Amino acid sequence: MNTLSSLMRQIEQLGAARSLRQHIAKVQNGCSKADTSRAGGPLLSRWSQQKWLLPETFTTFRFTSKTSKSSLKNQARSPMLALVAVVSLSSTLGHRFYNQPKLDVGTKAPETIKAPASASIPDYKTTEEQRKAARIGAVAILMLDPAVDGQIYRELQQFLQQGSELRKAVGPFPFASPSVLSNTAQVYLRGCPEWEWRSIVAQAGDKSATSERLSLDSPAIAAATDNKSQQDAIAQLQAYSRSVRAAEFQSLTDSISSARRRYLKALEALGEPSVLGFPQIYDTSLFDLSDAAWQKTQTGMSRAAKRMVAQGIPQGLPKEILKEAVKLQVAEEVPLESQALAVEGLTAILQPNLVRDPEETKELAELAAQKVKPVMIAVDRGEIIVAEGQEISQQDFVLLDYFGLSRRGVNWLGLTGFVCLVAGAIAIVLLVERHYRLRRRDHLLLLLLTLSAPVLVSLGLPWTSLPAIGILAGGFYGSAVGVTVVGLLSVLLPVGLNVELIHLVASGAGGLLGAFMAGRLRSREELALLGLALGLTQGTVYLVGTLIASAAVGAIWYVVLGTVGAQSLAGLAWSVVAIGISPYLEHVFDLITPTRLAELANPNRPLLKKLAAEAPGTFQHTLFVASLAEAAARELGCNVELVRAGTLYHDIGKMHDPLGFCENQMGGGNKHDEINDPWASAEIIKKHVSEGLVMARKHRLPKAIQAFIPEHQGTMLIAYFYHQAQQIAAKEIEDLKIALPDADNSKLTIASRQVREEDFRYDGPIPQSRETGILMLADSCEAALRSLKDATHEEALNMVNRILRARWQDNQLIDSGLTREDMSLIAEIFVRVWEQFNHKRIAYPSAVFTPR
Q: How many Cβ atoms from other residues are within 10 Å of residue 686's Cβ?
């Protein structure tokens, strides 16, 4: 009885507390209604549906208001950052306007200015220009290139060897005794047409060849007999035929026929290309040389080549001049009948073998520069430096500046215009980056990168950091932002600073290339190749600009090759610097680049390997969710790399208690059945979000990746344990009714365990981007799609649409930026990916699995 009385007193106390809470709720209710009417939108929907308790609604609104104040604070700071950017950039870029002489070179003197004292002043600028001209005009020191000499000798040897092989193929000459047939007749008989040869044999009286005789009355033979060489050959053969027996004459004609066959084969070999790669030089005159003449030709060509190689052949020597020199060399070394052949062969084989000696040339250029004496400008006291209205020259300006008469000071008008120019450039950058929604820290990084260029110029370095700025800005924030920053900076630098234009154009070209390509690359290896391309581009642009700017350089282009190489190496070095510092900048400024996202998505990362080992079911779940989310992100034009990386890490918090999640239980007992407390189970489930954030911070994951961990659950209800808790609470009320039949129902409800919806909802926030919204939908649909076996496309689509509709009606996607049209498209994509994973397979007969 005492126990029942004590219980009744507790119920009354709880009832009083309940009444007080209801009164407070009414007050808060009025505030919430008033605030909601002003705010509109999601809170009004939540109020009308009464999904949460009133105090929570009020708290949620206060959080929203706090967020709005923070946003306004950020917006208030943005103009301050812009002002800092204008001041800092104008200060570093506008040196020219701080101490600018009013009486500069090219301006007209407002009055006649006389020298206040006698002085002799060096003109450093003119002196340096003259020394530079002396360096460029220095004659190059040449030296023989042993590699080219060796190549010439090898090619000559191959050429002569080919000639010997061709002569060997045609056979010895003369092929008959000169007492029987003269050399002239033998040359003619070896190369005459077949029908002429047959005619000659017939006329010579070869009775053994009567079957091959032609009619002497034919027009061809009648015409051929007019040929003097033919008549001479016929006469010699007839004389030999009359003086010897028929067998001996037959032996001679057989020798002539054999020589003719070899000659025809040799002619075919002459039609083939030369072994050296150029057109065939040898002709039939090679076969007409005697062995002695050919030997003398080879020796003469070798001697002539050695003399010309030793004398040196300069670059750019016209072929006609080289050919005339070869003629002079072979005139006394080679027989007359083979001189034409030797000239053509040596002209084709010989090539320039004189190259510049870089060290000697450099020493000569420096010597020529040192011989240029400093230009001194002397003036006497009272002497007129510049007359009124006269244009001030360089020498006049040196004197004026030395005596302090150039009227240096702040050019306020020019500085004001330059500040406006800088402000306009910053406005253009802000307009371009508006689409990318950069943070304040991103603006700060862009400012620091931009300031690096004028600082290096102020230090007197000939290279600007534009290539590094292009790679970093383009890789971090996209090609549009990178190209805009580099382009505007290239325009501003020569306005406010004294920069050599050719150096600036070369660096700017490299920077633009780096900015344009960096945002499209996905690995460090590709960035390394971009560095090579950047160096080549910078060197090429510098070379072209130098050749265009100075006509004298074109004649002695080798002088600028050292500077061109230095420019190329500078471009490559800046790319190395950019690649080297980019990981540090990514961590310090919390940047997510495609390269970093690709590295984070590597399954060999320690955190992902640990997830696969400790929670394999969760890891497999993550892979399938990633397939769904990636497909939807690609179709909607979202950041696919960010979705892939964020999805892989969204459930890492489940490693704190893997068996608390059914996918890791592997058919074993359910841990929550043993707990039998839905409130405790809900805390375990919710804890995977908080623990996941702890793990993400510990492993220094970017905040954009960390956002996927809480936002993929939003403020969703853990429905299973919520309904289980409601059932337990209802059972407790029934038990109390049995124990206290006369008690009031409201008091019994208070006495039972309270089931508050907020205890079974995740802490949020709801998805704040399309990427995290897509992940929430993919995570919600994954288990349902896995459970489908033989469902049709329409059945799967209906189920996915129901899940997506539930998330939409639960106001989980109001801040994500996803639209109703996106939801329909996402549902179709999810079903399509599911069908690809669950394609039909043929059913193998049982006999296939039966062992033989």
A: 19
Nearest alpha carbon to residue 192 among 124, 245, 260: 260
**H or E stretch at 384:** strand 384-386
Does 632 score more than 90 pLDDT?
yes
SS3 content of the chain, % helix, strand, coil (to 5): 70, 5, 25
Torsion of CA 58, 64, 69, 75, to 10 degrees: -170
User: Is the CB of residue 464 less than 8 Å from the CB of residue 504?
Assistant: yes
Distance CA 668, CA 687 (A): 22
Give the model's pLDDT for residue 278. Answer: 62
How would you class 500 by CB atoms within 10 Å of its CB: exposed for 0-12, middle for 13-18, buried for 19 or more?
A: exposed
DSSP one-letter code for 377: E
Tell me the C-alpha distance between 774 and 625, whole Å.
10
Reduced to 3 states (helix: H, G, I; strand: E, B; else coil), residue 320 is helix
Residues 6+ apart with CB under 8 A from 321: none
Q: Distance between CA 301 and CA 346 in Å, rounded? A: 7
Count of residues in the chain? 852
Rounded Cα–Cα distance for residues 301 and 342 (Å):
6
pLDDT band at 101 (very low <50, low <70, confident <90, very high): low
CA dist list (Å): 189 to 182, 184, 259, 269, 449: 11, 9, 9, 20, 87
Nearest to 94, CA basis, from 425, 422, 464, 401: 422
| DSSP character string of 679-720 | HHHHHHHHHHHHHHHHHHHHTT--HHHHTHHHHTTTT-B-HH
- CA 16 to CA 35: how far, in whole Å? 29
What percentage of the chain has pLDDT greater than the value 70?
79
Q: Which two tokens stand for residue 622?
A: 């993550």
Is residue 246 a contact partner of residue 207, using CB atoms and an 8 Å limit? yes
644 pLDDT higher than 50:
yes
pLDDT over threshold 70, residue 741:
no
Average of pLDDT values for 218-244? 69
pLDDT digits (tens, 9 = 90+) for 126-161: 887 777 777 666 666 778 888 888 888 888 888 888
How would DSSP label each residue in 227-276?
Answer: -HHHHHHHHHHHHHHHHS-HHHHHHHHHHHHHHHHHHHHHHHHHTSPPTT
The whole-angstrom separation of Cα 643 and Cα 629 is 7
Helix crossing, 319-330 with 291-311: angle to 10°?
130
Largest CA distance in the chain: 167
Residue 710 has pLDDT above 90, yes or no: yes
Q: Tokens standing for 684?
A: 């375990």
Q: Cα–Cα distance between 321 and 736 in angstroms, integer?
A: 121
Which single residue is written with the structure tokens 């002799």? Answer: 120
pLDDT over 80 at 223, yes or no? no
Q: How far apart are CA 508 and CA 529, in angstroms?
A: 19
Nearest Cα to Cα of residue 651 among 678, 687, 679: 687
Q: What CA–CA distance (Å, rounded) separates 379 from 79? A: 54
Q: What is the value of pTM for the model shown?
A: 0.55
The residues pairing with 119 across neighbouring beta strands, listed in sequence order, are: 379
Contacts of 821 (CB under 8 A, 6+ apart): none
State how far the Cα of 283 lies from the Cα of 299, in Å rounded to an integer. 19
Q: Could you give the C-alpha distances from 341 to 289, 345, 763, in angstroms and in order?
A: 11, 6, 96
Terminal-residue alpha carbon distance, the chain:
81
Sign of torsion over alpha carbons 265, 266, 269, 270? negative
pLDDT (average), residues 567-577: 89
What CA–CA distances, in Å, run from 238 to 243, 244, 643? Answer: 9, 10, 102
Strands (E) across 105-151 are located at: 113-114, 119-122, 142-144
Q: Are 638 and 699 in contact (CB under 8 A)?
A: no
- For the chain, the average pLDDT equals 77
**3-state SS, residue 563:** helix
> Could you tell me how many helices (H) and strands (E) the chain has, helices first?
37, 8
**Rounded to the nearest 5°, which phi and psi values hold at 119?**
-160, 155
